[in-house]
Amino acid sequence: MRALRGIIAVLLLAGIAYFAHERRDERLVARVMAKPDRLRVYRISNPASLSKQQHEALMRGPHILEFPIIYGVEVRDRSVIDEAAALVRDPRNYPQPRPGEENTCDPNPGIAFQFLRGREHVEVVMCFRCGELWIHPTGWGYFIGMRPMFAHAVHRALPKEAAFDVPEDADDQRRWDPYAAR
Questions:
Q1: Residue 163's pLDDT band (boundaries 50, 70, 90)?
Q2: What per-residue confidence (pLDDT) applies to 57?
Q3: DSSP class of 50
């Protein structure tokens, strides 16, 4: 009986620790996204398009999560920072996945936002082909219906980057984007 109580106590403590960790991550994201000091915007590489050796070599350089950075900028325009933060801050802009759905995309083309507030930061990785968005450390969703707004924010930070605007062909766009013209 004592062993059973011990096991129950350990499981209960593990559950509490997990919940506290999740809440801490949520508070971090809320704190940083409420008023980020800085924003860095990156064009990131798709690891699936690289050989294992190429990916490992690129990962020795700058990267966001497991995605090597092709190039990036630190955004100075406060209105761009505020626009990007507002899009990410509102979870209605990226509905959560349905039960059983998995995050299986490798961003191609990929863009990453890194929001900073003091020494804390939150990374947001977006795939403009399938519309997946990951907020590290808390979760992911889909921004398909908000693609033009996210693209506008990225264009303001990376004006020469056009690779993510529209999928390669109209059929591809219709397959991924329910809001695309039929």
A1: low
A2: 76
A3: S
- Chain centroid offset of residue 11 CA: 31
For 154, the 3-state DSSP assignment is helix
Strand order in the sheet with 63-64: 63-64, 67-75, 38-44, 110-117, 120-127, 132-136, 139-142
Q: How high is the pLDDT of residue 75?
A: 93
Q: Which residue did the predictor score with more confidence, 22 or 83?
A: 83
CA 45 to centroid of chain Cα atoms: 14
Judging by DSSP bridges, how do beta strands 110-117 and 120-127 pair with one another? Answer: antiparallel
* Integer Cα distance of 133 and 146 in angstroms: 11
Q: Is the link from the previous residue into 62 a cis peptide, with omega within 30 of 0?
A: no
Q: Which two tokens stand for residue 116?
A: 């900073």
pTM of the model: 0.71
Let me know how long the chain is.
182
